[in-house]
Amino acid sequence: MPIPNARQLAWQQGELSMFLHYGMNTYTDKEWGDGHESPELFNPEGLNATQWASVAKETGFKFLVIVAKHHDGFCAWPSKYTEHSVKNSPWKDGKGDVVREVADATRSVGVGFGIYLSPWDQNCSVYGDTRLYNEYYMGQLTELMSNYGPVVYNFYDGAKGSWGKAMQYHWDQIMTLNHQLQPGSAIFSDNGPDVRWVGNEGGWAGETNWATIDRKKVHIGANPPTPSYASEGEEGGPDYIPPECDTSIRPGWFYHQEETPKSVDVLVGTYFTSVGRNGHLILNVPPNRAGVFDDADVSALRGFRKALDDIFSTDATSDSNVTASNVRGGSDSGPFGPPQVLTDDIRTYWATEDDVREATIELHMTANKTFNVVRLQEPIQLGQRISKHCVQVFDFHTRTWTTLVGGTTIGHKRLHTTEAVVTDKVRVRVYSSRAPPLLASIGLHYSEHPVKEPPREYGRARFGGSASDAQI
């Protein structure tokens, strides 16, 4: 059974990353530039990377990913490989380095540092020449991976406009170089090797979502082979590559003054449809032309954090007596006993005997409790196992068990939402599992915020020149 490596495990448990789309497009009011912009346009009045990192830390984001180069080829660091960079801008008299400021700020506040480096480069004159451009690209990657301290997250975007030159990237060499220079970094692309794209830019994963796929079926730069493959994965797939769910707090990826951030309810809903479906949410928060986060965005992020804290800070299971139909070793009080699900530590878990694939775990609370969110978590360090389950509640009036919600996969975290329920008995039934079922945590919570699922639009947004072309 495929299991996560240390990079993947830390990334999945981190749950939230913040994306920073900031660069030339911020000043041209575009989503995709064309590479002909003058570096003179880049001159922020008060760029404050410490604010970016501090807000990320305050609002619960574990990683901060800076766009070091977007499709226009403008470099946010003084790369020796191009003149299209901050070194030829008036900002700090050409001595500035956005990547350096972000790297330093993340470490000062304790947030992981990540880098996005666009493969498509509309400014580079050798783009389209397989040998020369791959040398150019890996040269820039070497600069970024060698001069800015530890990098824990690398993002490789497969996007390219239909008008772009044909280009064959040496992905195997690029990924090998990345791992050689930053062995602790989780690498994202359409097909991994550590993290895969979920197949949409709306921030949602499939309700069935396996962390496993077959990498040979997915190619970087192509849309999913079927609409559901990227968002649902493949049961029994040979490669453990969990999905990243990307979306922006605003309609566009770069800052546009006329746009407004998503509401707290929508952001909470996006958390439920990404992290709550065995995914990892990377939320883009674009700095404005001054080089800081807009006040409205910061307010939305703080509201988002408060809403999540309000939901998950209390748990109706905390005083439960827990029993199960089967326990490894036969002892409820042993290391694999059912009470292990009352913590959120994946290192402790309820386990069944090796030959069991169907089992039930039951929680008896000391009094009636009200909840409308059910949280389930597997100890994913041992692989993703459960393929079908349901949550049932005991009806005091009829003295029978009633199915509250059914589901398929669980993985790192499955969040079920329901109408408000009042009961003192809840059970989780596992109907099928790829190996002996394991559960690390069961939680019952209450949310005041309605879960608004993002619209289901597959594929990448294809942006033209102006902000009005943005699709998300």
TrEMBL record:
Its EC number is 3.2.1.51. Residues 450-460 have a biased composition (Basic and acidic residues). It comes from Klebsormidium nitens (Green alga). It holds the Pfam family F5_F8_type_C. Residues 322-432 form the F5/8 type C domain. It comes from the Eukaryota. GO terms for molecular function: alpha-L-fucosidase activity. One of its GO terms (cellular component) is lysosome. Residues 318-328 have a biased composition (Polar residues). Keywords: Glycosidase, Hydrolase, Signal. Belongs to the glycosyl hydrolase 29 family. Residues 36-303 form the Glycoside hydrolase family 29 N-terminal domain. Residues 318-338, 450-472 are annotated as: Disordered. This is alpha-L-fucosidase. GO terms for biological process: fucose metabolic process; glycoside catabolic process.
